[in-house]
Hints:
This protein folds into two domains: 1-153, Arc Repressor Mutant, subunit A (Orthogonal Bundle); 157-242 and 273-309, no CATH class. Helix content is 33%, strand content 18%. It is built from nine helices and 14 strands. A five-stranded mixed β-sheet has the order 13-9-10-8-14. A four-stranded antiparallel β-sheet has the order 1-2-4-5. The radius of gyration is 27 Å and the shape is globular. Mean pLDDT is 78; it is low at 245-282 and 328-361. InterPro entries: Replication_initiator_prot_A (IPR018777). Residues 316-361 are annotated as: Disordered. It comes from Shinella granuli.
Amino acid sequence: xxxxxxxxxxxxxxxxxxxxxxxxxxxxxxxxxxxxxxxxxxxxxxxxxxxxxxxxxxxxxxxxxxxxxxxxxxxxxxxxxxxxxxxxxxxxxxxxxxxxxxxxxxxxxxxxxxxxxxxxxxxxxxxxxxxxxxxxxxxxxxxxxxxxxxxxxxxxxxxxxxxxxxxxxxxxxxxxxxxxxxxxxxxxxxxxxxxxxxxxxxxxxxxxxxxxxxxxxxxxxxxxxxxxxxxxxxxxxxxxxxxxxxxxxxxxxxxxxxxxxxxxxxxxxxxxxxxxxxxxxxxxxxxxxxxxxxxxxxxxxxxxxxxxxxxxxxxxxxxxxxxxxxxxxxxxxxxxxxxxxxxxxxxxxxxxxxxxxxxxx
Length: 361
């Protein structure tokens, strides 16, 4: 979902995408006649995935072969239904069929690559007068099996289809994948995002576009921040918006001649603040992790550490109560505290974002 499988620009692209990160390798190739499939073309795959999941959840038999009218597909992805929109739909299907992907993702044997096109084949059905009646398409097995695996499918906000920028859309898919259970959010350095996006833009231009997205805050359900380290490295951080109900006014009429506080809290749908946090932020966000599974493991590890710490404190209090009382030590003066040995590091002390566990730097 967040890997560089598609072009982020609507311009005709034939330059391949090559991405390597650990054991993950991806190569996307296009043909000059149609160009590479874009992230807007991928809306058709989102529609296809929704149809497979809906059929499965209703107890119906699923299949890689799918049939629908152009109207059904176009309205689902929020497009128009004119003849021009229909021609664009057919061009998108051509790009999805002609774009080939070679990847090691979800391959049982190390070094093995699976090669496929986003659509194996598609055809247009017409009536006797040549008017289009529907479209039939076959999705690849790699995509089909991923959709049937609940762990690999995430819901998206319907307003995703309203995002007009290719980088906006890719960033939403990235933060949606890494949402997980991270209360403090995640963060990525700009260089990592540039590599992972597959964008052809120079890094300087890419960084400018990221800062503009942080300023605009277009991603539904998430807030973006710009963090700058002491060394000057720029980081994109994000946090999920806290769930809240319908927006309400913070002030209401009380029946008197003046306005009084209603006791309600401010709406969470207000204009976002400027997305900039200073370098002395104490939040410890996960950095550049590749999956929400890794993040969830880190979150659970912190919960276990807190549980062990609380249990140790309880046992210590119980032991002190059961032990014979000892003469009280004289109170330590401020001078002795300053001049004596430094106290042990409190495990609850906030750490810098890149500190390893235990507060060491």
